[in-house]
Each structure stands twice: as structure tokens, then as C-alpha cells.
Design goal:
single chain, mainly alpha, Arc Repressor Mutant, subunit A, 8 helices, elongated
């Protein structure tokens, strides 16, 4: 193995080499030298808190698995930081997908809660809600075809977003976008009825 001495000092090279040979004490020392910087990277991308701490742990687990692949062709910090940034960005994308899914679900629940029958409603309100449901059917016919199709598959057929995406041959994110816009359009169409009973 050829080590480019210009990148690292001899102590760091020795620690890395020992860690690559399975020396856990050497690996622990490397972690101690770089942990604050790795946590800083995680926090800068994810914000402070549980998510950053979780990624911090994941990063060093990955470093432990991959350290034998380090070839001393660059600074160890450069290699480590690249792993840290990639792990943090991957976590952020995962969190964003989950939050987008939850946003769509919250938006749907809010919409349907506003038009659902309430057994404690007065007769006039129950009648008005029945009228809203009728108006929903009419409003559905005004939606663009893809929005209407996704809405019906989700709410009439009870399909999951992944199933809809597979059936229509589109990305799950696109299904969520169609569904979100469909509900927005329905709410706009049903604005006169939306806050009834609130």
C-alpha cells in the first residue's frame, strides 16, 4: 500500500492502519478526534436533535464497516466528511418523504373531517352534510382526469399510494402530488360548505 504522506500526519496514518487491522482502541481514538465535526455536519443538515444523533451513530457504524476500503489517496477527514454528508442527506430525504406523506394524510383527514356526518349534529346540519357529499360527487367530475383517477382509487377503492403508483405506472411522489391537488381543488369547489359545523 502506498501512503501519500502529504495528506496526513504519521499518528493518523498509524491509527487508521491499526483500525484497518481490527484494533478497536485505534478506531475509538479516530472517533474521538473527529466526532465533534461529524456531529456538526449532521446538525447543519438535519438540525440538532434526535435525527442528527441517529445519523451520527449511523455514520460511525458505516466508517467502522468501510475503513478497510480507505486507500490513503486523500485526507481521512475528506473521506469521512463525504460519508457524513451523504448519510445526513439520505436521512433528510427519507424524513422529507415521510413528512410529505404525513402532510397529505393530515390534509385529507382535515378535509374529510369537515364533511363527515356527526351523529350529534342537528337535522339541518345533517341534511347540509348530505348535500355536501352530493356536491363532492359533482365536483369530482370537474377534476382533471389524473387527479380524479388517483382520488377515486385512494378513497373509493381504498388502494395504497404505492399500489396506485404501480397501477398507473407513475412515481409514488407524483401520486401524492395529484392527490394533494385533487383535494385542494375539491376544497376550493366546496368552499361555501367547508367550515360547516366547526
Amino acid at each position: 500500500m502506498i501512503v501519500n504522506q502529504e495528506f496526513m500526519n504519521s499518528e493518523e496514518i498509524e491509527l487508521i492502519t491499526r483500525a484497518q487491522d481490527g484494533d478497536e482502541a485505534a478506531f475509538t481514538r479516530l472517533v474521538e478526534q473527529h466526532d465533534s465535526r461529524v456531529m456538526s455536519i449532521a446538525c447543519s443538515i438535519l438540525g440538532s436533535g434526535f435525527d442528527a444523533e441517529e445519523v451520527y451513530q449511523e455514520i460511525f457504524l458505516k466508517v467502522h464497516r468501510k475503513i478497510s476500503a480507505f486507500r490513503f489517496e486523500s485526507e481521512f477527514t475528506t473521506w469521512l466528511h463525504r460519508l457524513a454528508v451523504n448519510a445526513a442527506l439520505s436521512k433528510k430525504r427519507s424524513l422529507n418523504r415521510r413528512r410529505n406523506r404525513e402532510t397529505v394524510m393530515d390534509y385529507e383527514n382535515d378535509f374529510f373531517d369537515s364533511v363527515s356526518a356527526n351523529p350529534n349534529d342537528e337535522p339541518e346540519k345533517r341534511q347540509l352534510r348530505a348535500e355536501i357529499l352530493s356536491q363532492i360527487e359533482a365536483a369530482l367530475t370537474k377534476l382533471p382526469e389524473r387527479q380524479r383517477t388517483v382520488f377515486v382509487m385512494k378513497h373509493d377503492q381504498g388502494l395504497k399510494l404505492k399500489e396506485i403508483a404501480s397501477t398507473l405506472g407513475i412515481a409514488e411522489g407524483t401520486v401524492k402530488a395529484y392527490l394533494f391537488r385533487a383535494i385542494e381543488n375539491l376544497r376550493r369547489e366546496l368552499e361555501p360548505y367547508y367550515n360547516i359545523g366547526r
